[in-house]
Fold this protein.
Amino acid sequence: MKKMIMGLATVALLFSAGNAATLKVGLASGAGSMDPYAHNETATNSILSNIFDALISFDKDLKTHPALAVSWTNPEPTVWLMKLRKGVKFHNGSDFNADDVVFSYDRVKNWDKSGFKGKVSMIKEVSKVDDFTVKIVTNVPYPILLRKLTYIHILDKETLEGKSEQWIGLHAIGTGPYKLVSWSKGDHIKLDANPTYWQGKGKYDKVLLRPLTNNATRVAAILSNEVDIINRVPVVDVNRVKANDKLDFFVQPGLRLIYLQMDQDRDKSPYIKSHDGKNPLKDIRVRRALYYGINEDAIIKYVMKTFAKPASQLSPEAVFGYDPSIKTRVKYDPKKAKALLAEAGYPDGFEIVLDAPNNRYINDSQIAQAIASSLAKIGITVKVNATPKSTFFAETGKLNTSFFLIGWASSDGDASSIFDGVVHTFDKDKGYGRYNRGRFSSPKADKLIEKSAGIMDPNERLKVLQEAQRVALVEEQCFIPLHYQVDIYAASKKVHFEPRTDSRIWAFDIK
Amino acid sequence: MKLFKNELLIEYFEDKLAVVGLFVFTLLCIFALAPAIFSPQNPYDLAQLFLENSFQGPNQNFLLGTDEQGRDILSAIMYGLRVSLYVGLASTILSVIIGFSLGLISGYYGGWVDTIIMRIADIQLSFPAILIALIIMALWGAGIGKIIIAITIVNWVYYARTARGVVLSEKEKDYAQSAKALGMRNFAIIFREIMPNVTAPIIVIATVRIANAIILEATLSFLGLGVPITEPSLGSLIANGYQVLFSGYWWTSVFPGIILMVLIISINLIGDRTRDIMNPRLKR
Amino acid sequence: MTKYILNRLFHSTLVMFTISFIVFFIMFKAGDPVELMLPPDATQQDVVEMRAALGLDKSFIVQYQKFLSNVAEGNLGNSFIYGQPALDIVFERLPATMELAVIAMIVSILLGIPLGIISSIKPNSILSRIIMFFSLAGISVPVFWTGMILVLIFSVILGVLPSSGRGEVYLFTSAFTWDGIKHLIMPVITLSVFQLALILRLTRTGMMEVLMQDYIKLASAKGVPRKVIVYYHALKNTLIPLITVIGIQFGQLVAFTIVTETIFAWPGTGKLIIDSIQNLDRPIVVAYLLVISFIFVAINFIVDVLYTFIDPRVRV
């Protein structure tokens, strides 16, 4: 029996041998679909960016570069002419041309299950001028168009026309540096280098992407050399990774802000018990008291093990709209917090439920507990209700909450995303404020946000964005910023890896 | 009730392991009943927690160490023990009441009442208990009250079946028949004449199934669908600690686990002995 | 016999129908993942459109009818998250789960029955008492706790066994490669401890009861050798009811792979179902539970039929 096993093992080894130049990557999260328009979330986007190209690409510092578009002009404020790259082929041999671009944008905008409608909502029309020129018309002058275009991977019209959703969801055929060989959901994705990639062939002949969703598993895999790179090293395991001299360790400031939203709309909030029956969060002094009363330094030190950056505003430095004049958070000051509470008429605090997801952000439910313990010391009794993300987002969406912990990543690299989606007064028709679930509302900030959308001059636009933030955050304390997450990677010293600001792992970058 | 007859008690104490089980169980119950007296800290009172104490190994201030919030594990275990026992006992009592009544009714009346109740029981038994509980918890979300109900829904079947079986055999016996002949009402016959005879087997099953209920609760909490970590049971403490087991903070999961194991073994020792005493077939 | 089979078939269909209805209803009540599936910059309008695209804007009755008519065509609907047929996704993961369950069952039977016999022959010997104590511990220790302790000892402290994942797969299983076996050891032990202890205890109780029966005593009095009595007459009569239990327990094993797979990150259906429950991916949850209950029902059926062959007294 033993002999037979050994024999079989040898045979199995023979089969797996011969791919010396394979890059193995352990990922915290797998792909939801091979259809690049199905899921707009970092993990899927990151995986598919190896297979597909967009017209424009981000470099590792979120600067825009030509990709399938080689150059562009902006003859009128709402019209963009894009020259396309010639001689590019899809993985199945089809030629890339303007028809593919028109087809792709049409599908993004009109497919009922598209997750990317928000990226193209300002685009009125995409049309073909000639085989290698397309014209993009926007509804209003749209300064951040190029950033949005980086999200739209280009599909092949000839291949996809007439195919079912299911087929597209399994077969990824792009123009990118790697082509899809096989996808075993939840287990692995195998990629082969595209020898005719327009930027040249990638260094690794093969890439194996393995979703290792369990934190401990992912760490074990890099420590035992099963994979060459992992993302999202759990903060509690950083020391174990650092102690291994075969590994490099990377910390990259991320784009995701973790912050608290507060019900500022209802006079009686469903999960607050106060002595006067009112909703204390409507009082700015109470909101400020919460800001002063949370010991964020301790959270970063003990819960995040120092792997987070304190947030003093809505966007980190890498995002357009950052305001260098609001550099630091207010200092933790429980005395001042108590004084503010007393001034607002709540010297003995009140009771409140803090909702938080327990499987969405790094240490999300632990952060919520630490906040509760911090606020307990200024007399506010906080009960933490940590639920899986599906429940959390559904319930907060129904405004079935008074106080919650949530995150936001301005992944376009532009602060307009958080302003439009979270700060602006909720307006279903205009599409503003879907994530403004505390229903913060400031007409003054709204005006500035709407104004910023049409300013083409970057300097002037930056000023308006900064002003909007000052009004919303400093004057009105719309939210309580906590910290920005950082991306932590570990990589074998055998590979040359550089982390990217957009949190993607792009195999072509890795040498 | 014959369970409390002296000779049975004496017989119970003849088995040393069973005595140890009873002793340990009693001890754990004492800790669980009044954790405030014994525990150094109230882990529910967030004002007593300090992040500065997070992840300390066992030391003189924190005998069994602390978790990431600076919560004393020893205190958390005592309070967690209470939650675990409470869930186990409450769900068992509830399922006994419901299962027992439905079983009595089903067995005594027969007919379509019996058919419906037993069909439901059959369907439920043809399906793993943990899956039923899992689905229910998925709908409701974590919570102590919710998990008690979920476990009750899973467990009533066992009591219903037993009660029904005994009733079926008892109701043909002389005393029940004569009670009926004497004109006693159905209800009275069930509760005055038949019930006492069903009690003994139910007690035996209940002792064994308390352990089962506690394990089920712990398992669901471990999967993140049981009791939330803010009101931790032993299971959720273990689950929380498991996240950091590999990172070297073993005390956060190992100690609650040991206590859980000791608790279940002690209950099973008691249950085993009770069954042996009350099952005359195995007696020599 | 035909009538019996038809009756069973009807009953099984009823069971599966009921399960589908209840699970569908519960998951309907639990909500949908649309909020989660769309990116933060989607508008409320996009949410409405997505919900309509998935048919989630319809009433419960309409959605369930749609589901039933799909089932009639052998389709359990498409996963909300993956967009692929839910049944395909479940079947893709099923081999890994079954591998774990089957191996654990074999281990439990191969160890449980002999140990049960040993402890029943001389129930008061030291060896029997040791066996019985460990079996008590076996049914007392929660599955996840066994798994955790194994991981702590063999992976974290000693570092001799991999803590998670499935090893190299050859043909259809990972049990044929050394790497695969190393990955299998701890999950299999974790999963089989409870079953082993249970089978052991049932074997013991059964043997002891049978050994006390009159016909055994009679055989003994007639001078039939003790070994023949124990290993032939008594064992045969103990094993027959045990088969039913093993059948039912196999279903429990499959269910408990959920816990084992969570601990060891085993890429089977258990992990899929936990994720799908948390993501409110109803089609996968329904498909998984129907597949599991089908396995359950099928096993019970096979066991019952087997019974009639082994024990001629039972006639169906």
